[in-house]
User: What shape does this take?
Amino acid sequence: MSKITFPIGGVHPHDSKIAAQRPIEMLPLPPVVYVSMAQHLGAPAKPVVAVGDSVKVGQVIAEPGGFISAFVHSPVSGTVKGIAPRKDLAGNPVLHIEIAVEGDEWMEGIDLSDTLVTDIPDDPAVIIEKIKACGVVGLGGATFPTHVKLSPPPGKKAECLILNGTECEPYLTSDYRIMLERPKEILVGAALMQKALGGCPCVVGIEENKPEAVKAMRAAIEELGWQQKPVRIAVLKKKYPQGGEKQLIAAVMHREVRSGALPIDAGAVVQNVGTSLAVYEAVQKNKPLITNVLTVTGKLLPAERQHNYLFRIGVPLSFIIEQAGGEPDGAVKLVSGGPMMGKAIANPDATTVKGSSSVLYLGAEDTVRKEASACIRCGRCADACPMGLEPFLLNRLCKAGDLEGLEANAVQDCIECGCCLYSCPANIPLLDRIRIAKGQVIGAIRARAAAKKQ
Amino acid sequence: MTSTILWTILILSGLGLVLAVVLFLIAKKFKVEEDPRIDDIEKALPGANCGGCGYAGCRAFASSAVTAPDLEKHFCPVGGNAVMKQVASILGFEMREKAPQVAVLRCNGTCEARPRVNTYDGLKSCRVKASLYSGDTLCAYGCLGCGDCEAACTFGALHINPDTLLPEIDETKCTACGACVKACPRMLLELRNKGPRGMREFVACRNLDKGPVARKACANACIGCGMCLRTCTHGAIVLENNVSYIDFSKCKLCRECEAMCPTGAIHGVGFPKPLDKEAVKERIRKRKEEAAHE
Assistant: This one.
């Protein structure tokens, strides 16, 4: 097995895939769901239902609020009880639609059977239209609307579709489980996206710590009889952030995405394996994106309490926590997402969104920050940065508020992976400062571009 | 020996003289004509270089002021009217007096009033904290208590009180330069006119949540009940997005709203006597009765 990886930086946290052996279970329906209107990157969706309306599973309840936005569908059947701001994961108010669950009645036309549909529509526009109508967004974390990503701007052509099955974040196992349990659907989803992009080859990138997934995906290619098709599995070295979009492109295609450019400029389109499954369900089964797989994990939980749940998007986190047996003793931090890039859950009453991938319990030892001391200029942060930046320098420029210097040192290229923070022996909160500066610099660049246009 | 010393002195003195003449001539030829009033104005200014006027420093303010057609866009908040009078007399302009201002904190979410629901262990900076989440209390609008305003204040007028974790403003030191206003990511600091003898009345809350939610988050929150709006006879109160705001240009400092506020969200500062709530309520009741009679 040849192992490929991205060329610079990276760290090696313990992968802690404790929940890897737990098959996907169906999460029961809660009494009430709250569907967020800001589940995707871009403009929030606009509700199209009113209080008192009864809705079915899969019915459109909100339409896109802009070009980069997505449809939102009802994950349950029942009655709309309210449309009001509610606190999200971070405690900030976001518009939510509250639906009281009554039975489980699906919209007509949604195929709920298990039969694999491998016939691919001839017209790429049909595929993209279906993906859009089903509200599919990238499930790798950024929740970028998939139909936008699959429609490259004129003059740009996708040369390779990369399916991201690396799951390089420690603890998370949802992508691993779907690759084990539904590899054929993922591959058909990939074929659909290849068609939509005009027939480019496809590479599925999987980290070496998931040999079972590699085996399952390879077996699926054989079972489908697709050995001659332009789809292959690439085994990647176990290194964080292998699943970063730009890192994956560098590893698989040996191409670098220029500063400020998009992956499509390098001829690449990267989609998560979860997204591929959602694309399959949307196009072949007519099923909108209303379910996703989420891992409930953490070292504090015994093996039998680790779970991979298939949940309806909009189920409150507190319901999932309760179903999984409550909070374990000693947990000091709840994280949604992986320990490296995930967000701390400040409000456990918040609801799940399309991009929810985990409920992770961390103990004091893993999360409480040690006191920062002075920089000893060891350069470990610069060695660890997968984007080739110098976090120690950026940190100093941030402190001085030197925006021009920050821009000259490419703070806008930071992918917020946290490698610098992870590697710093002086526990300096590098990323905390850099993230703020990145926002300011990107704001300044956009303002300049807007002024130029006028 | 003596002649060596003598020669050295002579040559060096001669060289010095020649160079002095050269420098004098060059200085004369390349003299930069600068408005002498710039220096005068700079001398008159407090020299804090705080940037509160919107210019890079006192010198930048001065050089901009001499070319300005009037003093409409030039006001030194630190020096206030006294300094601006001097500046105006140097430039020969009419000077329009501005009411002295002071920074006030529109949050009263003390540790007692606003229970902490989680612990924040990231970088101690309000901007970083605000970018990550809504804060360690249930209030998504209140003070984050990391002291960005304290760090921004160049006059030492702002200090975080360790008991309440809220900044306290020393009005004797506050120059209303506005640095703290810009530093606060929650927009809680506001420059307000000082009333007569420094009296001022303001709503110490910016929570936009509905009453019950706001109340649950903080005992001192404005719940948007509108009691102050109904009480005020001067039309100084605006109730928008579940929170009241007192327009200082209309407020007559009667303190009736403060007496009627059920949560104590309205603050009066600088008044000579503490507020006798019952007496004020009695006064309002009587006035209403009289109005009913007529």
Q: What stands out?
A: Chain A has a mean pLDDT of 93. The CA atoms of residues 291 and 312 of chain A lie 4 Å apart. The radius of gyration of chain A is 22 Å.
